[in-house]
Design a protein that fits this description.
The protein has twelve helices and 19 strands. It is an alpha/beta fold. The strands form four sheets. The chain has an eight-stranded mixed beta sheet, with helices on both faces. A six-stranded mixed beta sheet has the order 8-2-1-12-19-18, with helices on both faces. The longest helix is centred in the N-terminal third of the chain and has 20 residues, at about 55-70. It is globular and about 60 Å long. The relative contact order is 0.21.
Length: about 375
Amino acid sequence: MRVTIVGGGILGTAHALEAVARGHEVVQLEREPEARGATVRNFGLVWVSGRARGELAAALRSRELWEKLGAEIPGIGFRPAGSITLLRTPGEVAVAEEVVARADAQCRGFTLLDPADVRARNPALRGRYLAGLHCANDAAVESRQALPAMRERMTASGRYKFVTRTEARSVTGTAVVDDHGGTHDGDLVVVCAGAAHGGLVRELAGELPLRRVRLQMMQTDPLDEPLTTAIADGDSLRYYPGFAGATLNSLTHNESQNAVADEHRMQLLCVQRLHGGLTIGDTHAYDEPFDFDVTEAPYAYLVDVVEELLGRALPPVRNRWAGVYSQCVDPDQLVCRTSPDDGVWVVTGPGGRGMTLGPAIAEQTADLIGL
């Protein structure tokens, strides 16, 4: 088949890679010179630990697919580093104790560590905390390197073309017309337009159960020692649905979140890039129109938290940025996936799970279509 993919982010690229792997010809359209949205403004984390029970199988499958892709395409930078969620209050420790006692703790890779065991796994963590929730199944990829590496592999197949600075304007049958007046004929169209909910997406699929989410993140200069796992703080227990339960409800009722973290709906996630710098975040804003300014208070708060956990000063912050991603708000769906016409599919809304679940979502789509 001849497949046209609209969108050059992780979701579009994962669908392109899946189609090429199944023997099809793919043309992928990207309106920018390179993907510039949430795909490259994230942590590069393959995050199994906090996924809801309904998402867990897909997350584990995607983790398996990322490891396979990492072996085949070294430029992805896959690392089975795991993560440690550092717990600083008795209430947070109680949530972790409940989580590791659940039936799914083993498949999530959970172990509760005392401070000495935390430092044995990640010697850089010399700061203050009471315990650490280790997730062996979490991993990392290099979000700003992964897509070019994946495209290079597809190009070598002879059945893939990446067309940049080209915006899809309309779809007639299974022919995509772009903003230069060009027509891309094929047998199948898959639209993965990221946080663009209007325009072509609305024309094809109408109103979908989607919202946009804005985040703030930052990147430091290289740390002069390895951070051998990704790290999170106890606020991530409040954010990720995999930790929901009676003990978390008690924590939320009895332990107030820091005022800045509460105002900006924050959690700490931190992962070391291959160049040594730390990617640190993040905030969550749901009410549009979003501010066009980045706000300093969340950055200062995150620096304080990471320095407390490391027990040392951070390297200078090199970059700060904001990003927007698309999130499906239907609790029964990983993404909004709809087929408005024969041979045309719209796939959007993975939320903050795009990097984690991209390969599994693409595999599911391909199976559903019968590629």
